[in-house]
Design goal:
Blueprint: E1 11-12, H1 23-36, H2 42-55, H3 69-82, H4 84-96, H5 99-111, E2 129-134, H6 139-149, H7 157-168, E3 170-176, H8 188-195
Parallel strand pairs: 2-3
Antiparallel strand pairs: 1-2
Length: 196
């Protein structure tokens, strides 16, 4: 994507999400993703198996990717905290296992005038999260508004917020006025055209 070449766009690595996740929620994401892997697209399985083999050590297993979910979940959750590519792979697989929530979050955000990437865009290739977030759309506000719009959903607030972060590709590090917020940052070329 062109904006990836824009030097003025600051990205945080994928594992920066850990600053916004409780340990128990991270572990539940890892466990549910590992349990769902056999039913997910092959690229999810292959990527997570490769990264697990590379970064996760499971006592008693020469190949950590072959360990049972119950045994490798905790070491994988620990590696998720340190390895951006593993965090991205697990989150992408988790999202692929929650396509209903992904669509609802996308519809919810676009109804609130967020301009987000299409759902089919490969967010892993972006390399990380943008650092800005609109002041008037904090996590609590978004979570409550989503629940009001989808009262029948059984998704937890943590799941909804993780999906919002993934769909928007933003983390709330730098709170900005709504008028200054761009969900999809402009490329240098677009910035130049806007000034002309």
């Amino acid at each position: 994507m062109d904006f990836m070449k824009n030097q003025s766009v600051e990205l945080l690595p994928f594992h920066a999400i850990n600053q916004f996740m409780r340990n128990d929620f991270r572990l539940s994401i890892v466990r549910s993703t590992l349990s769902a892997l056999p039913n997910l697209p092959g690229n999810n399985r292959a990527t997570i198996d490769r990264l697990t083999k590379k970064y996760v050590k499971v006592p008693g297993f020469r190949h950590s990717d072959k360990a049972p979910t119950a045994v490798k979940a905790i070491p994988l959750a620990e590696a998720f905290e340190k390895r951006p590519e593993l965090a991205a792979a697990v989150m992408a697989a988790w999202v692929d296992n929650h396509i209903d929530l992904r669509q609802k979050v996308y519809d919810f955000l676009t109804s609130r005038a967020w301009e987000v990437l299409p759902l089919e865009a490969d967010r892993v290739k972006m390399g990380g999260f943008f650092i800005t977030w609109p002041k008037d759309e904090d996590f609590e506000t978004l979570g409550q508004a989503f629940k009001e719009k989808n009262p029948e959903d059984a998704y937890t607030a943590d799941e909804v917020l993780l999906m919002i972060v993934w769909v928007t590709m933003h983390l709330p590090y730098e709170m900005v006025e709504r008028a200054d917020f761009q969900c999809i940052p402009k490329t240098d070329k677009e910035e130049k055209q806007a000034k002309e």
